[in-house]
């Protein structure tokens, strides 16, 4: 500054004008120096860093670069020049230093914010992120970062120690607890969800209370985002997954088998003992040939040993059409290429109802894909409904308008009309 004043005085500038002109020249010089420092930081230093990072074999530093951590860090270069130039202007020194320091604090906060985003992105590149997501913890760290940054900025502007402001926050703790209630609950829930491995990104969960039925696509501090199968998105509070019950279908997906549990209702009036003609027809069925021969031999031996009078079907042991049909379904499923052979396979009778006798198929498909699963299930029951009449059975269904019309037509025909 003195050098500039001496040069201006040598050119014959008055003392009053010297003060104004020297300040203007110094401001322009500092501004030019700041611009130059910014250009050096971005055009030279930053390009060197980018070149070095792009050449190495690590992927994590590329993510740091993508999150613009170094770009934001370069903004500190001109701020340092302005801060250390404040002593040139004694009257405005305090204002310049506080302004520059506030800017540097804000830039530092944005740098740490970008660094936290980079850490989250790096962690997501590993498979463990689906089991142990850390996005909630990153959000908590950001909240703490912004609170500390705000306290430091305020303490810098008012010229007080940050600890004094922190001590004053004790009186506002109740208010802060109310403001950050959801965040605190979400943090606790996130820890429990993660430690107990209750839900992961990619899990299919079902929570009727929140109309959620789909895949988890994101887990944050306050919410769990679920994309339903109709492509709508449901936001569930994180703590709701701890306080309320929900169904996680991960076990089914991991097991490799998806349960088929459906019944065919048989009209009980169509159930009867098998006749000789029926036995002959049943033996022609590939899945029943060995069964019929073995069972008939067993029944004959039993009836002979116990001297059973077989003229009456009530005496002794006999095959029924529904029993043979049940065995046929069991063998058909055992030989089905889409049924999981290492999981439970049962064809059972349930308690008779008003709608007939339920024959329940309890099995597992070997493909958990929804489309394939529904196709397998439909194919199985298409076949079952088609073969029911072959066993002399009828599927029960309530009378329809067509049945009533046919009954009316038959009555009119029999009466001569």
UniProtKB/TrEMBL annotation:
- Pinpoint the Mechanosensitive ion channel MscS domain residues: 182-250
Question: Could you confirm whether the keyword Transmembrane helix appears in this record?
Answer: yes
User: Does DNA damage show up as a keyword for this record?
Assistant: no
The places in or outside the cell where this protein is found are: Endomembrane system
**Keywords from the UniProt entry:** Membrane, Transmembrane, Transmembrane helix
User: Can you give the residue ranges of the Mechanosensitive ion channel MscS C-terminal domain?
Assistant: 326-387
**Topological category with respect to the lipid bilayer:** Multi-pass membrane protein
**Membrane spanning residue stretches:** 20-41, 76-95, 101-119, 140-158, 164-180
Q: Which family does it belong to?
A: Belongs to the MscS (TC 1.A.23) family.
| Protein name listed in UniProt | Miniconductance mechanosensitive channel YbdG
State the species of origin.
Paenibacillus pseudetheri
Its taxonomic path starts at: Bacteria, Bacillati, Bacillota, Bacilli, Bacillales
Gene expressing this chain: ybdG
